[in-house]
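Exercise 3.2. Students should predict the tertiary structure of the chain below and write it as structure tokens, then compare their answer with the key that follows.

Predict this chain's 3D structure.
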Amino acid sequence: MGHGQGNIRFSPQYIFYYQMYFDWNGHYCGSIGNRGNGPFEEPEGISQIIYIDNHFYSKGTKFIEYDNAGTPTGKVKKLHTPLTPNSNDLKDGEFLFGGMNFSLVGDNFVIYDYPSILYLFDRNFETLYLKVVTEADSLPAWTQPIGDSKCITYYKDKAVFYNFMNDTVFYITDKGLIPQYEICFEDNLKLSTHTQLNYMKLIAECLKAMNRGNSVENTELVRQTKNKHKVTAVYETESYLFFCMTEIIPFAKPRNKLPGEPYIIYFNKKDGKTTRINKGFVDDLLGMDYFFPRNGIYNEKLITYLWPHELFDYIEECKDKGDIVNPQLLALSRTLDSEANPVLILVHLKK
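Answer key:
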């Protein structure tokens, strides 16, 4: 089905991979939208899809509504045109140029236009409000989050928002933002807002240094990110708050360094304890080294994927070492072809 947490999205009914959607048993159900220049087509394809009340909604350069069979209903709105102001928060001529997250909030939609603004839209694609979530005197022409980051996730019927620059995890509501958790990081570990906002500019400076044959060790990017860590996503469940984390090591290979290993910090809402898990959880499902939720956490499930070749390679390594291979892993391997799509693995949290 694909890889990277940004490529796979979840809803109670379906799992979405780009324009394709599958049921939770892994069966292919169809695809949504077409590439093209027609009124109900996307010139560059669809980036995100939502399903609610027997309708699909896609976002690319437009909002498009489809019926339950995936046929456009005729409701469409271009996103690169001025938005219609329906509140005092929105000024005439305000534009929305894309946005990195397209998510549900109750009966409405929210888009996070990184790094500054959250926009809420109703089902008719009219703008209900905007909220500024990152204050900055000026922004670079091109800003992009570091790595494969996810700023909006789901907990039950709530949209959870954390943009890695503020110190608060919020719930997004029809009325605005509700502070839910205050996050305290040690100052020596947290990446500054200035560096995050200017990350692409700093990368460009490193590339220039490398093109001249110079080391990047004395560049501002390397100085600013030394020993710094990044939250790539926050997930809430019934009992826990999970933070997917990584150490930031830009241009690791040219610098002869190992990339930062992802890890998890989770907060137990019942006893208030915080725990760090390096690499991942003990894998007592398939018997591999560890389990890390590469695709996130949704509806009390930790979700990851496994490419068939990764599974086969692991089995061979175990045999070469003389280790016992988990029978469940062997049974799974017999059902797979080395060229097949990856397997999505769901781990249910204990109640």
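Discussion points: The helical segments are 193-197, 199-211, 220-225, 308-321, 327-333. The CA atoms of residues 36 and 141 lie 28 Å apart.
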